[in-house]
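Hypothesis: this fold can be encoded by more than one sequence.
Test: take the structure tokens below, design a sequence, compare later.
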């Protein structure tokens, strides 16, 4: 049965069938074959999405859309450039820093690529960076957004494992910064090797001006994190609060959006949220197969039989997730592979929060991994270039992210220090 399911899943995926349809088709076929009541399908569909934490997903998607279109991302880039744009490789460092900061607002990788790429790509080329490097940097930097909280991927992981969203958010800070540092080191080395300098000097006037303009933008992550960790809001409530804040700033302060624009963003949010929810709902049905076939228990038994060390178990999980990320979006990967891989990590003594961060970093790399990395297609659409040109510039960033992944995987204190400090 499991062999037939695995082969069928691969064939359907190659044929381009949506992931939720694959989940439903295989689950219903298996249930019908074994004479299981279709009531299980209804229970799986409704039970999986009946989680309050999932309401944060449309909130953060909407907030990211408003901030990307409403001038908040442009002001953020201008502010960061005022500080970093003058050092060698400064515009590349600005790109990484902007991805880190915008990721702390939107939680969406593809939205980060779209919001920042339109502004930073011309600036990178103007400073002297090659087209290949610039495309690779922007496409890969967007992946940081699902590591730095608030992260939609972390919300889904929490739903699948009953982990604390608040602890996962805190755990994502230092690993997200680690990823950014690894990417930044390569950017500085590239600029030094190719003798790229900005030719600009620091301007106190520009720093003061951009700092004044960005204050309202920086208020967005403040609303999220003060609200959550100050005990005033749940993550779901924080997503709604920051959405209202983003609308207020974009419409009444920056005045770059009107209510027609807000309605268009709302419709897009509804479509994207529906895609996430239908995958989660279908996964609830598909999980019946995993439970009925005792797949997690069999995998744990395999590890025991081969006496794999915790280090080898984590290496195996990383390899599996890196391959999965090449073919599946993070949302589908979380709901499908979390029930399979968490028992393995748990058996190896890995902390749930640490495992969630390992999972997230792997899937972040998948966002720009060929052949189906979503960020690659977003960049193709924005910059009107072929995917082969983008992929050719990604290889050095794969190496940088792989180093960061190894550090995050085998140095658990990076993930656990802040949650243990703040939420004892």
């Amino acid at each position: 049965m499991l062999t037939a399911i695995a082969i069928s899943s691969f064939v359907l995926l190659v044929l381009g069938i949506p992931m939720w349809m694959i989940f439903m088709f295989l689950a219903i076929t298996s249930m019908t074959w074994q004479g299981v009541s279709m009531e299980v399908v209804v229970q799986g569909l409704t039970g999986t999405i009946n989680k309050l934490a999932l309401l944060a997903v449309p909130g953060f998607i909407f907030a990211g859309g408003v901030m990307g279109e409403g001038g908040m991302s442009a002001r953020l880039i201008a502010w960061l450039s005022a500080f970093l744009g003058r050092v060698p490789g400064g515009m590349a460092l600005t790109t990484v820093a902007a991805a880190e900061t915008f990721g702390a607002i939107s939680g969406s990788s593809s939205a980060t690529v779209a919001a920042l790429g339109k502004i930073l790509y011309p600036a990178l080329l103007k400073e002297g960076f090659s087209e290949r490097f610039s495309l690779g940097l922007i496409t890969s930097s967007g992946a940081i957004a699902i590591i730095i909280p608030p992260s939609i991927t972390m919300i889904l992981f929490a739903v699948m494992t009953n982990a604390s969203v608040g602890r996962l958010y805190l755990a994502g800070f230092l690993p997200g910064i680690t990823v950014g540092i690894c990417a930044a080191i390569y950017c500085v080395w590239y600029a030094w090797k190719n003798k790229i300098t900005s030719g600009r000097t620091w301007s106190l006037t520009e720093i003061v001006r951009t700092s004044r303009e960005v204050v309202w933008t920086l208020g967005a992550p403040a609303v999220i994190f003060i609200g959550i960790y100050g005990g005033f809001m749940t993550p779901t409530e924080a997503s709604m609060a920051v959405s209202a804040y983003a609308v207020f700033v974009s419409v009444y302060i920056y005045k770059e959006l009107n209510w027609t624009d807000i309605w268009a963003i709302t419709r897009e949010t509804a479509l994207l949220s529906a895609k996430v929810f239908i995958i989660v709902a279908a996964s609830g049905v598909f999980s019946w197969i995993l439970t009925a076939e005792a797949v997690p228990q069999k995998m744990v038994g395999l590890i025991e039989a081969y006496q794999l060390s915790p280090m080898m178990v984590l290496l195996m999980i990383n390899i599996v997730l890196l391959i999965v990320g090449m073919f599946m979006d993070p949302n589908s990967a979380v709901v499908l592979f979390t029930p399979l891989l968490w028992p393995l990590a748990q058996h190896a003594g890995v902390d749930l929060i640490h495992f969630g961060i390992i999972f997230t970093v792997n899937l972040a790399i998948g966002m720009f991994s060929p052949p189906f990395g979503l960020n690659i297609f977003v960049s193709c659409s924005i910059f009107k270039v072929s995917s082969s040109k983008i992929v050719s510039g990604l290889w050095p960033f794969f190496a940088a992210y792989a180093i960061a992944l190894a550090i995050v995987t085998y140095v658990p204190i990076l993930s656990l220090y802040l949650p243990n400090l703040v939420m004892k």
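Residues 51-257+293-422 form one domain. The CA atoms of residues 296 and 343 lie 6 Å apart.
Hypothesis status: open.
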